[in-house]
Amino acid sequence: MMAGSCPESRDRIATVGVQRRGAPGAVPWLAGLLLISLVSPALSGTVGADLGAPLDRAMSAAESGLREEEWESAESRYRDALMEGWLLMGSLEAADGRLPQAREAFRHASTVAVETERALRSIGLLDTTPGAPSPLRALTAEERHELRARATAGLARAYLNLGVMQAQGERFDRAAELFAAAAEIDPEFPQIQYSLGVARFNARQFDRAAEPLSRALAAHPENATLKSMLAMAWVNTEAYDKAADLLRGDPERNTNSSLQYTYGLALVRSDRAAEAEQVFSRLLREHGDSAELSVMLGQAYAKEGDYVSAIESLQRALHLKPEVAEANATLGVMYLKQGRLAEAEAALRAEVKGQPADVKSEHNLATVLDLEGRTEEALPLLRSALRLKPDFADARYLLGKILLAQGDAAAAVEHLEAAVRLAPKEANTHYQLAQAYQRLGRAEPAQEQFEVFRELKEKRRGGEP
Amino acid sequence: MRSNGHLPWMLLLAGPVAAQTTYPAPPTPERRMLLQRAAADLAAGRRAEAAARLREAADRFRSVRALLQLAELQSSGGDPRGALDSLARARAAAPNSEAVLVAFAEASLAVGASLPAVSALEPLTRMSPNVAQHHLILGRALIRAGDLQAAATVLRRAERLEPAKASTLIALGVALIGHDLYAQAEPYLLRGLELEPDDADATAALAECEVSLGDLSSAETHARRVLARSPAHAVANLALGMVLLARERPVEARGVLDKAAAANPGSAKIHHQLALTCAALNDQASARRYEDDARRRAEENEALVAKLRSEVGNLATDEP
């Protein structure tokens, strides 16, 4: 699997200045004390004045902080703006009689800044006097709509800019959370889908990056960065066909080597090795020797079953760059398929040493060791892989199988049950789980698992041509 | 998931994106110049001049950035109180800033003020609930403040967010030991030690767990391993003292427990063990004195926890 951060794209998650809407005219409030208290503490100080003013002031202070490159001040003021925005939204919802929404808005207000008092008092007021009159009801529908739009824009902008600051600090997961909050408030907000997609991509949340990247690309179909990033997101979530389809008819592929590379990657991973081989061969011709390209070309040959060319390409890659990722992993898998276990072990050990986070290679190495009967050496590899990727079904299966063979049926059941949950259509896992249950004297679930195993086997046989 | 060589290719693609993008205007030249000169002074080793310029930027332009840099300078120059004062000013100017809150909490802990640290960290965990590090620092501050129940709650959250982090697992184990949940603490400490096998605090805490669960042999091995490197380690001496007492060797136990008490005079647990040891030695007067000490320390701790909870609320009960 591939992933990575994309710092240049990060630079393009930029602070967005949105034109401030014209402040609505001062609303002629004639509210008494009771009315004031029922609006919410947020607004009680501003009755008779512009209800959006606290939000505007906080936004203005935040942007002044940005201008002065006082990031900490800007962050603090944007958080004030979030609180003011949510208090305003809560008050508007309450005035419209939408109390659950009002409560939710006030709850947000109580979590976005250090100060919680006004938000908590507002929630308290909702609880004690939910149907009480509100000065906001004196506004016309149009005025209320305008105020809501202003609050929405302010909130989206504050979340967006807080996200930008997180992205600038390379905290992409947190940036993504903030962008997601902005997108939830206003999915059409300028730049938001792009920023969310890029942040999730850089945070390696590829499955969640695809949707905002698709939306951003729909708005800017000419943007090659977006297209490549979306294709990579799909490659990383193993949606290789989608990635290949996205790039197949793209004329820019011919002049943009990055797009071409991504296209080749998608092809090789979607078992269109012959096409992939052409793509990588061309890239090699045009750009000279590159370890990464040689790995891809080697993988394409391996998929086609041309192991001689595959080994040649992969060894060239290792010669160019001994630490290049996936070269040894691919060699190891090829040797494993050929039954050359000692060579497979050596290659996979080299991959695991160079890429300690490569859980697939850890698992493949454990498979080799299991085949060699060295299960004690396989166990720590599988445990390490599962620490990094607890939902790795193959590793759970192999660990459970080895533990069962060693006589620890109780521990085996734990892993095999997890493996069945993760990959319910793997017949062998059901078989091993049935054996483990049997070993523990649990006849009924054992029988059930044997049944599932038989059904899956029959289905597979029936499906074969 | 992992990276591979395709990424540099991706980067070739970056191009202009947004017409709507606007960048803020540059900062006022004078303020910027002050900060630049401070940076130049600092690079040239002129710390006093740098500090003076940062102070000026903070005073004239209310620069939070300058205050943060000044605090760093003060802290590294051995002036933790000065750093805390600067950060208090920064906190007043930018109360919601994450960087300011974290720096303030750390500076507070550096001068032993755990309560202000907790009061700065609590809102941080509310504003950024998915940041494991904030929960971890808050948990550690709560351990320092003596509220081990709240610490355990907070550290469990940190552990859920980042399950394989040694420092979190170890802190959680220590917090659970603090309210005598030894069987619960042990697996966290073992997992922490798998990741950080050389961590002396974790090894000592494991020894305390083991002796409390009756595994004297493992406890002794672990305690002695720590003491070989850090002879004054309070928890390792406590654990070894407990082992020796359980093996009916009170004279030796007394010696190591005295060392434990010297290293951590505020520990009610150590004083309680000393009381038991003195009782085993038929020194009833000392036993009573140590038991009184233990009770007093426990009461002092309870009072501190009550004060903490009255100021920041009971963090042990707000499980999301």
- Strand/helix succession of chain B: HHHHHHHHHHHHHHHHH
Order of helices and strands of chain A: HHHHHHHHHHHHHHHHHHHHHHHHH
- How far is the N terminus from the C terminus of chain B? 30 Å
Please give the radius of gyration of chain B in angstroms.
25 Å
Oligomer: heterodimer
Mean pLDDT of chain A: 84
Q: How much helical structure, as a percent, in the residues of chain A?
A: over 70%
User: What amount of the residues of chain B lies in strands?
Assistant: under 5%
Total helices of chain A: the number is 25
Give the number of helices of chain B. 17
Number of strands of chain B: 0
C-alpha Rg of chain A, in Å? 29 Å
Spans of at least 5 consecutive residues with low confidence of chain B = 1-25
Q: Which percent band covers the strand fraction of chain A?
A: under 5%
**Mind summarizing the main beta sheet of chain A?**
none
Low-confidence stretches of chain A: 1-49
Q: What's the pLDDT, averaged over the residues of chain B?
A: 88
Description:
The complex is a heterodimer of chains A (465) and B (320). With 465 residues, chain A is mostly helical. Chain A is 72% helix and 0% strand. Chain A has 25 helices and no strands. Chain A is globular and about 80 Å long. Chain B is an all-alpha fold and 320 residues long. Helices cover 75% and strands 0% of the residues of chain B. Chain B is elongated and about 75 Å long. Chain B contains 17 helices and no strands. The longest helix of chain B is centred in the C-terminal third of the chain and has 29 residues, at 284-312. In chain B, helix 2 runs antiparallel to helix 3. Classes of the chains: A mainly alpha (465), B mainly alpha (320).
